Amino acid sequence: MMAGKRDARIGAAAQSRKPARTMLSRRALLFGAGSGALLTGAPAVACARGDLIRIGHLTPRAGLLGPLGDHAVMGVQLAAEEINAAGGVNGRRIELLLADASDPQGACARAARLIACDHAALLIGKAPCTAARVAIERAAKRARVPFVDTGAGAAHAALDVPERFVAVFARRYGKPPQAPAWVDYCALRIAARSIGAEATTGHVGRAEVIAPPRNACVR
User: Which of 17, 44, 76, 83 is the most exposed place for a label (fewest CB within 10 A)?
Assistant: First the structure.
């Protein structure tokens, strides 16, 4: 009996030390948009210092994916402008660190620089291929920096960009947005709400934006 209880305690302790792996599903994104609770494992965000929250944004800016990457950048910039204009995140402004992820080797190197040299508290964006995405995920996980992978979201959101966002985007940039603008805009808005709520799982896993809900994050 005593041996059984001891084995159970050891098993429970080992389980508690196992790193959590977070996957943001459609349901989780809907919940996060409504309540501001997006659990992506964000100890690095919670421990950030100073008046700025530095957020790295990765997306292809050249080649066939370049035009889509430009829209992703415009979307995330619009989100940052709106957040900062509203007072930031708990009074702290967001500083965007933009990086080109057009080629796999360069994307991995720039992600590592964002983490190690620029001290980004969060990474958002997409990699040019699966191998690069996995490498970025591993680097972020080692540094305990959340990585919100928006690469899977654009295809799902292509026909579901809300009209209010289209109008706001067109006023700001003089043209209608493509899907990546909406996906990355939502990713930053929801992540900022999570930072403000100090949502954390204690370990970094992979957070993946599957499909932004209609009219989420648009005021």
Answer: 17
Query: Rounded distance, CA 137 to CA 145, Å?
Result: 9
56 inside domain = yes
Sheet harboring 122-125: ordered strands across? 93-100, 52-59, 122-125, 147-149, 206-208
**194-211: per-residue pLDDT in tens?**
887 653 333 333 444 333
Parts of the chain with a pLDDT under 50: 10, 13-48, 199-219
What domain range is 63 assigned to?
19-208
Question: How many domains does the chain divide into?
Answer: 1
Which amino acid type is present at position 112?
A: A
Residue 9, in any domain of the structure = no
90: in domain? yes
Written as one string, the DSSP assignment of 129-151 is SHHHHHHHHHHHHHHT--EEE-T
- Domain membership of residue 10 (yes or no) is no
